[in-house]
Design a protein that fits this description.
Length: 179
């Protein structure tokens, strides 16, 4: 009999106007994000581009997969540090942007030459069975809820006034802060 493990990850994204948003999860602190795909200008307020988060996710998943494999193979990891780089190519609004290169460069220290050879073998096997190879071929399913809000300008100079409610079959997300 085959055993299957299913893990669900859920995040929430709150748009903050212009190009800013906050990504939240029940398991981690909020992350400010911004910068649309191929942004011409730099963002200096500490926000992460969604594409950079993807590169970071690949780098982090590489670390976790290597550590799991190293533990199983009896390799004592004394030091691990890495950098990652991805190249995004897009031809404008008509063409879908795609990553052409995604390179993770781990720098690892182990306790012996035997462990070093095992570590090299573990890294050689990772690309075919580690995120993103196994996951980025997935096309996201978009299940949008779209509302119509009447936009009025209250005398106090505030923003939009919500006049419609979310349908009863909505997924239960709380409204965005201030929304």
């Amino acid at each position: 009999m085959t055993s299957v493990s299913i893990t669900e990850y859920e995040t929430r994204l709150y748009w903050q106007g212009e190009r800013g948003a906050v990504l939240t999860s029940d398991q981690a602190p909020p992350v400010p994000i911004g910068l649309p795909l191929n942004a011409a200008e730099e963002c200096s307020d500490g926000r992460w581009a969604p594409e950079a988060l993807l590169v970071g996710a690949v780098e982090g998943r590489t670390l976790q997969a290597f550590l799991d494999d190293a533990r199983e193979a009896g390799v004592r990891v004394l030091f691990y540090q890495s950098t990652a780089m991805a190249r995004l190519v897009s031809g404008g609004r008509e063409q879908v942007a795609c990553f052409t290169d995604l390179i993770v460069r781990p720098h690892v220290a182990v306790g012996s030459t035997t462990e070093a050879e095992l570590a090299r073998q573990l890294f050689a096997a990772l690309p075919t069975r580690c995120f993103p190879s196994s996951m980025l071929q997935l096309t996201p399913r978009i299940e949008a809820v779209v509302e119509v809000w009447a936009v009025t300008r209250p005398s106090n100079g505030g923003g939009a006034l919500r006049t419609a409610s979310v349908s009863p079959d909505a997924d239960g997300f709380a409204p965005a802060p201030g929304g």
